[in-house]
Amino acid sequence: MSRTPIELEHVSRFYGSGSQQVRAVDDVSFTIEPGETLCLVGESGCGKSTTGRMMAGLLEPSDGRVLYAGSDVSKLPEEEKKRFRRAVQIIHQDPYASLNPIRNVTQILSAPLRRHKLVKSRSELRNKVHELLETVGLTPPEDFLRKHPHELSGGQRQRVSVARALTVDPEVIVADEPVSMVDVSLRIGLLNILLKLQQDLGVAFLFITHDLAVAKHFSWEGRIGVMYLGRMVELGSTQRVVREPVHPYTRALISALPEADPGLTRNKERLRLRSPDIPSLLNLPAGCPFHPRCPMYEEGLCDTDRPAEDAVDLDGHLAACYVAARELGQEDRIPESSRIAASEARRRTA
Amino acid sequence: MSELAGVTQGAGRNEVLRVRDLEIGYSTDRGRVRAVRGVSFDLEEDDSLAFIGESGSGKTTLGLSLVRLLPQSASIAKGEIVFNTSSGGELDLTDVDDETLRRFRWRECAIVFQSAQNALNPVMRIRGHFADTARDHAESEGVLKGRALTERATECLRLVQLDPERVLKAYPHELSGGMRQRVMIALGLLLNPRVLILDEPTTALDVLTQRAIIEVLTELREGHRFAMIFVSHDLSLAAELADRVATTYAGRIVELGDVEQVFYHPRHPYTVGLLDAVPTLAGEHQELSSIPGSPPDLIDLPTGCKFHPRCPYATDKCREKDPPLIEVAPGQTAACWHWEKVGSDWEARGGERHEQDANRA
Amino acid sequence: MARTSVPATGSGALEVLRKVASSYLFRRLIKALVTIFVMASLTFFLIRLMPGGPVEAYIANLVSQYNVSQQAATQQAASLFSLDLDAPVYQQYLEYLGNLVRGDLGESLVTRGVPVSEIVLSYLPWTLFSVGTALIISFSVGILLGMIMAYKRESKLDHILTNLGSMVSSIPDYLMGILIVVWIGVQWELVDITAMRGSLSPGIQPGFNLTFIGDALYHASLPILAYVLGTIGVWMLTMRGSTESTLGEDYVTVAKARGLKERRIATAYVGRNAALPPFTQLSISIALVFGGSLLIEWLFVYEGLGYVLYNSIQQRDYPVMQGVFLMITTMVILANLLADLLYSRLDPRIRVGGRD
Amino acid sequence: MAAATGESRYRDSAIGRFLARFASTLKLMARNRVGFAGFLLVVTIVLFSFVGPIFVPLDETVRVSQIYETPSLSHPLGTDSEGKDVLSQIIHGGRPILTIGYLAATISTIIAVMLGSLGAFLGGRIDTGFTWLADMVLTIPQLPLLAVLAGILSLNSKLAVAGLIGALFWPTLMRATRAQVLSLKERDYVESARALDLGTPHIVFREIAPNMAGYIAINFTLAVTASMYAVVGLTLLGLVPLSQDNWGVMINLAWTRGAIFSKDSIFYIMSPIAAIALHQFGLVAMNRSLSEVFDPRLRRGS
Questions:
Q1: Where would you tag: which of A94, B262, D177, D279 has the fewest CB atoms within 10 A of its CB?
Q2: Is the ipTM beyond the 0.85 threshold?
Q3: What is the pLDDT of residues A259-279, one digit of tens each?
């Protein structure tokens, strides 16, 4: 299976209309390179799951395009569309809802194999099912063939979910919070399986999580995208985003996260937010949506224009913040209107 | 080493709560679930004790039993739960009449649940919740109505950084998850309880809201004289808020000690397993490992030590005899026959990861 | 801190208009009017477009039996349906609607010259009174019993009431009526059944005096009993189920944790929330109970709309049939509206959204 | 896992799976005593009414001397106002009523499931349209409309009556089905089936429909009770001129001929009422154990 990049180009998703319109995802762009890992991190309601579903072709973007090998997915010829459809698979968060309670493990795994004629005979089908169960660490496979979902533990179900995604040899797997409902002591086992798939089969991952520590562990070699109220506020390599976060929201997330180490976590310097509560998607504040809570808020600069995804661009490490742009000497990327508003505000208060 | 070794002897600072050999089971159609199998601990006046455990550890059952809020199918088979009430008398919750229990609840010991999602009555304004609580404790707390009630409620809501004007007249569905959780904490403070129990207080919340709740709880503890018990699967919450930590597995405490002891000098393989499985944000990329096997089935538990099927140190002795809590250091106990070996392995490799961070503490 | 948009005075009127237009009440009214309109058209077209339909049959009947001339028969049919039959259908339809809007439902065929609207309005209060009282009694008693059954779950009382409830709810209300007549009336002779029939004893004049009210209650008691027995089973079972699930809700456990008194929890926490699901079912059963009035009133010779409808069907008095049917439908719609409004008062989550 | 290969192959085949599923469903239904009793009651009444007439001839002979006889060996349920045997009338009286009742329930279930799942699956204007139509039909008082239509149209064929009743009883069923399909459609396993490109037929019939089976069964029994209510009511009012006599007509005759008011006609009057009430009660009770059978939480136990 040749590997092709998948790109989201200014993709948005709106719900409702007029004054009741909610912009769940608002003008997000990034590309998943073959074999790469990109983590989408953000609080609930920030649009990371919706973005994941659009990447997997399961949800039509209201605006912008999803490109598979450079061409718009909705305009692909039928054959190409089928290839894209199978190239991106999805794993869900809730182990109890991701498997159909009435079908047993064999039925779940053999449906795609039979449907796409990936196996010629019953014996080949059985071998393939055994092989899949072994890849996801459900050994000995015979124990699981007849099992129904309610006879499996949460961790085991997630592994069946991964095996199901592997049946069609996907190029990219969108993993939507796959470990957040699994016991901490078992999470790493599941993450290691996904990492092994990447090394052995070169599968790319769009890994969605609200936990920065899990993102750092899983995508150490890859990239992290931080989302807030439907927008990508920071995008860069994991090690740089974690060590030198640019956007104040990312800094706030990093400083707020408790660590499983008393000495460390009790002395961590905390970023004080101006307000603990998230504004509602129904009436978003003007300019940068984080400004009502942002400790680095500057009147005029932050509440005039909405910072673009690449307001700051440190050779690929993007952040949507004008204050950061000014501090990092990229003032020229700040639009005129914000600069004027900022200087007026300074004159008023001076 | 007697069964009670795990409990600090002597009066020490004045004690709020004493639990001895508590056993709780549920009757289900698949058999009897032994959720809590002999738990003992003490709680001092301004102590903060964390119970860390995963699914099947019985930690929530333990939390609920401290205010006798177990579902009908549950029954306390053995043991005692003794509170030193603010009026000086001792009260054993395992045999108390309903009215005394009702009066005891919230006045002496309040509890905040995990899913603040529907912990508040959806058809009643927040003010109504404060009024109800005050009215039904009028005999013991003195009548608190009208202006006095509003003032007291406003004070509690301010303590948890909420805007009283807006919140008091709001309905629960008009507040966000984080705000509802803080309302629950404010309600908990209304009658100045001696103990506040928090069952997974931050699990359903986002990182920034979680941070706000942790800060509220930390400030409250400094200002107020109340003890705190919280129950969670999240080790980092214990690291943030706890003075003492108890790791629990299959219905029993497997390790109990001060937070530095348990995090930096663990002596039970399960605690070590947990510490090795939790990714941290600070520092370089660590090699993490899962605990093999899956959570225990509380109906047919293995023989001997319940952790032996998943434990790298398991020997025949572990498979036959269930170890009691053994004193491994002053104030620290662990239920493991091979705690010395576990300790020496940990110290050998533990040096580079934890110790030097602790020195900065 | 979210900025609330205060409409400038200029656009105030527009804003208010928009708010009303999108308001819950307005949409429900529109829906009700459209339903009535559709019902009226349904009965109109059914009569008109049936091949060899009743209009033609009526004319043929007049011609053959009373050897009335074809022309005169058509003329009479026109007055019967109060419109000109020769005109094209759509014109008849418009005329029919015109009359409807002016409240003119045509004239009764049987009692010449008496406008249908007069008949309908005179019998309406009896049905409203009997069905209304029955609904209130059966709903409140059913809710109470349901809660008791849930609180005393798996006890002997719970088992008896549950089986009784499902038995009662499976027997149609009109069969319940017959059982009342047979057992209470004839077999056990607890009550003089023949005297109780009809909605008013002869010689009693309607008016706000005790004798009238006493007599009206006396006559209405059996129909009300039939309605109550016909519907109470459903409320008991629904309320038992919804109370059982409410008892498992977090806010009830938290209320106990807050040391609230048992009575307070049972009313303000459990009762208030558990009553919501059965309340939503109220609007469905209103249509059923009003429908059932046709049979109950026939059984007890209780002169309400159902009784009138039955007679008009027997006598093929089409205008009265149409008029009574429209009135019953309107009453059901208004009752539903009332139930929904009450519900939005009870559940704050609905009031804000306004979405039904 | 040493199940004999023969046995496992048998269990794998479609019939095998169906029989196993049927056996386990029966076992589950038996868990609720009252529910199972209800199920048996309904089965016996239906069998009685459809098979009975073949063996028991309808007693037409008028015996003036034996009016309202109390039950005896020759007349287990006594005799009617013309001395005719009541039991034979009960046996013959079931079929017309039950046929219409079950036919109408089938029609309304089909309409409800189609409109409900189509609306839920396609969403948008179609969905709002269907829901609106359902709400409107819900506000029509069914019995009066049926009575009016019966008065206007001549309803002699069973199919016409069943069709009419069915056309009025589908809304509550449709709303329930729509809610169920809406919730199933959003389930994660349906989304992953779409991602695996398993095709809409697979999703509808393999992922969604099996989860709906229980739901439809429960709603079907509710529909039968509702249509029985209507058909008995109409026959009672004499508005549906069905040729042979049936339970409804028996009650109508008892009523119009004043049999109700004579003391010793109790068995004659109570027999049809009991037959109808028992059948309805059987359905309602059966529903309770059906809902347990199809309750996913319970499947976890089996």
A1: A94
A2: no
A3: 888 988 888 888 888 877 778
Which of B69, B97, B100, B123 is the best mutation test for C, with the most CBs of C within 10 A? B123
Find, among C32, C26, C102, C30, the residue nearest to C335 by Cα.
C32
User: Mean of the per-residue pLDDT values for chain B?
Assistant: 86
Q: Are residues A220 and A269 in the same domain?
A: no
Q: How far is residue A98's CA from residue A86's CA, in Å, rounded to a whole number? A: 18
Query: Does residue D249 form part of some domain?
Result: no
CA dist., res. D109 & res. D107, Å (int)? 5
Q: How many domains does chain D have?
A: 1
- To which H or E segment does residue A318 belong? strand A317-319
DSSP per position, B240-271: HH-SEEEEEETTEEEEEEEHHHHHHS--SHHH
CB contact under 8 A, D232 and C175: yes
Q: Which residue range forms the structural domain that includes residue B67?
A: 1-104+236-280+291-361
* CB environment B326-350: b (16+ within 10 A), e (fewer): bebeeebbbbbbbbeebbeebeeeb
List the single best residue of D41, D133, D148 to mutate versus C (max C Cβ within 10 A): D148
Q: Does C46 touch chain D (CB under 8 A)?
A: yes
Q: Has residue D203 been placed in a domain? A: yes
Quick check: is A252 in a domain? no
Find the domain containing D163 and state its range: 25-55+85-242+274-298
Asked whether residue A104 falls in the same domain as residue A195, the answer is yes
Q: Which domain covers residue A334, as residue numbers?
A: 263-349
Residue B170 lies in a domain: no
**Which tens digits make up the pLDDT trace of D23-42?**
777 777 777 788 888 888 99
A175 plus A286 within the same structural domain = no
Name the residue in chain D with its Cα closest to that of C31.
D136
Whether B28 maps to a domain, the answer reads: yes
Q: Looking at beta carbons, which residues of chain D come within 8 Å of C35?
A: 136, 139-140
Please tell me the predicted confidence (pLDDT) of residue D7. 45
> Which DSSP string do the residues of A88-111 spell out, in sequence order?
EEEE-S-TTTSS-TTS-HHHHHHH
Interface list for B 117-146 with C (CB within 8 A) = 117-124, 128-129, 132-133, 136-137
How far apart CA C333 and CA C35 sit, in angstroms, is 8
Note whether A226 and A333 are same-domain residues: no
Of the candidates B113, B136, B173, which has its C-beta nearest C260's C-beta?
B136
CA distances from B19 to B8, B91, B225, D234 (A): 12, 12, 20, 70
Q: Is residue D263 part of a domain?
A: no
CB A10 within 8 A of CB A29: yes
Could you read off the pLDDT tens digit of each residue along chain C, which spans 356 residues? 333 344 444 556 677 776 666 676 777 788 888 888 888 887 777 666 554 555 666 677 677 777 777 777 777 766 665 555 566 777 777 877 888 888 777 777 677 778 888 888 888 888 888 998 999 999 999 999 999 999 888 889 998 998 888 888 888 888 888 888 888 888 888 777 777 777 777 777 777 788 888 888 888 888 999 999 988 998 998 899 899 889 989 999 999 999 999 999 999 999 999 999 888 888 778 888 888 888 888 888 888 888 888 888 877 777 788 788 888 888 888 888 888 888 888 888 876 443 33
Please state, rounded to an integer, the average pLDDT across all residues of chain D.
Answer: 80
Shared-domain flag, residues A303 and A230:
no
Q: Are C131 and C173 in contact (CB under 8 A)?
A: no
Whole-structure pTM value? 0.82
Residue A92, chain D, CB below 8 Å: the answer is yes
Is the Cβ of B104 closer than 8 Å to some Cβ of chain C?
yes
pLDDT for position D218: 85
Residue B60 belongs to a domain with what CATH number? 3.40.50.300
Tokens of A52: 């994941």
Per the structure, the count of domains in chain A is 2
Structure tokens belonging to residue A317: 């490490």
Tell me if D4 is assigned to some domain: no
